[in-house]
Amino acid sequence: VNDWHKELEYLNVLKQSVTEGIFPLYVPSFQELFGITSSNGEFLAMPIYPLSPIIFSLYVLEPMEFHLLNHFLMICVGLFGCFLIKRDFNLSLIAFFFLVVTFNFYGGFLTKISAYGPSQLGYYLSIYIIWIVLKISKEDAIKSREFMIWSIYLSLSLSFMLYQGSLHYFVQWITFLIFWGLFNLKHLKFLFMSAFLTISICALRILPAMIINSNTSNSREI
User: Fold this and answer.
1) I want to staple 115 with a disulfide (CB 3.0 to 4.6 A). Which of 2, 125, 162, 180 is the partner?
2) Could you give the C-alpha distances from 24 to 28, 42, 117, in angstroms and in order?
3) pLDDT tens digit sequence for 37-51
4) Rounded to 5 degrees, what angle do the CA atoms 154, 156, 160 make?
């Protein structure tokens, strides 16, 4: 019915790693814990759990306590993104209120996180991608001195999303940006630079998954 049991086991593995000082390259009981038949225990090859400095708080926190802390921090991150949109697009307080409510209580996100838990928290970074796309679309062309800055902003937003373990949201936003680029060809250079930076920053998460899973098909019935 849901993946909370798996999500908390991911965090249990990270907690053991932090408390015992062991890098989680290999988890022998991976198949039994998570029911993943395509893996032999290569934990780093599954980019669907958080892998950021905040995981060191697991030294003193239990997995669910860690999730609540992480969720609170991500709510604050998303709220700041809403403030950026309010500032740059001169939203009234009423419009800003509806933006915050709509973004935080979007039904698609609520149903996902209720079933899948921590791996959905990267959603809160979506507001930054929306902000960047709106800013880029507002300008006829990106000024040369701002070109790299906006590429960095976009790549960091996508990268932090993946390091939160939100692989599904990461793929969905990449798909959206590809289609957006096809209809905004003047911004292709910006997207290519963002893609290069994103792949570079996310190499730790992307490359192990590619190496381990590249020859494996999805055996589940969809």
Assistant:
1) 2
2) 10, 8, 21
3) 556 778 877 888 999
4) 125
